[in-house]
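Late entry, written up from scratch paper. The run itself happened at the end of the previous shift, but nothing got recorded in the book at the time, so transcribing now.
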Amino acid sequence: MVDALPLFPLMLSLLFLYLSIANGVHCYEEKKVLSLQSFQWKQQNGTPSCISRKSRRENGATILEMKHRDYCSGKIIDWSEKQQKRLILDNSHVKLLQSRIRNKAASGGVEDVSKAQIPLTSGIELETLNYIVTIGLGGRNMTVIVDTGSDLTWVQCQPCNSCYNQKEPLFNPSASSSYQSILCNSPACRSIQSASWNSPLCGSNQPSSCNYVVNYGDGSYTKGELARDHLNLGATPVNDFLFGCGRNNKGLFGGASGLMGLGRSDVSVISQSSALFGGVFSYCLPSTEAGASGSLVMGGDSSVFKNSTPISYTRMVQNPQLSNFYFLNLTGISIGGVAVQAPSLAHGRILIDSGTVISRLAPSVYQAVKAEFLKQMSGLPPAPGFSILDTCFNLSGYSEVNIPTLKLHFEGNAELNVDVTGILYVVKSDASQVCFAVASLSYEDEVGIVGNYQQKNQRVVYDIKQSELGFAGETCSFI
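Output as recorded:
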């Protein structure tokens, strides 16, 4: 119930009913109640620790606690400024993904890295890969960003020529008795090209260390040497784990120590631990509320899940030239139970990516989705567009609103029923600018993306061996 304005949700529902009848269209029945206070970021008291020591094993599965990256940064900044920076950098991240996809497909699998580098927008250096977990590496606990769109796991290392600020001490290879550098011309060194999109860099003097470079869409990067060490995922050891020891790194990664690659290449965490977990992992991404936490589950034992709806599976679309990514076939989108009509949905290949924030749709699909959403949100005062979001409302007079549901339908009758907190994006803390949290791509032939904002409070299951991906509703909590 609404506290400050108890009649508003009822009045809004009656308004929708009246407008539907007046316009000669059917009643929209699928709605969700959105509390405008429920998913605004609340500042922590003091500086929270990035490290989580709550990981556990249960029924053969390894469960790592996940938190939103902002929980780790602990910075007090203006709400609107933070939201704007997040969207600007998210757009840069998407541009890099689209550039990589185009170049990789056009070149038959070998990318020209010079074409894929996207300049830093407006000089802003705020990383958009939003969720973090704690792993053990060489006997040290390290907090890393989780990204399904990347393969190489890396951390900042001593001695560091150029490093961004992180909360924990830098990884010290000399303090680990199990650390081993990878030499050039070794199979492990050659494997890095598919994971980083760049050829390994080798010195003229042999034997030399295998050097890597990974560029990200916000202008940040990591450069260093390839190495092996013991990895611990909770209490589960992964011996001789191949990772990047970053000596030159740029970007504000929320105070995290590096990045954990959950992509599909041979060097990803999933591939390197496949003997232990069978190539299966899942996550439940929490909201941005202070203290909210989700889970990254390594292994396919569904008994440890807390899903409230059955898991529905769709097949992963294979693309040999883009084998690192997770592609799905999107067959439909419904707003408030109404199927959106867009001819290009028949060619619905879409990428699911934990490192992209806002979902992107082809322009023709987005326009059809936007039109149906506006029809069902008619009667609410409009607000100006914000960055990449062009469908906004002034909800400052409401404590709660009834909004239409958003569902993504995939091949095999799988369905992603977007959580209520993933439908609208609160730009201003007084709710005077709240926007539909889906954006349009620039061109019709670009690949759509399911971002992490629409994946919140879902159990998303990746099964590499069976080449399928599942969705189920789950209120994310780590207990």
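Confidence is low (pLDDT under 50) at residues 1-28, 109-129.
(Scratch paper discarded after transcription.)
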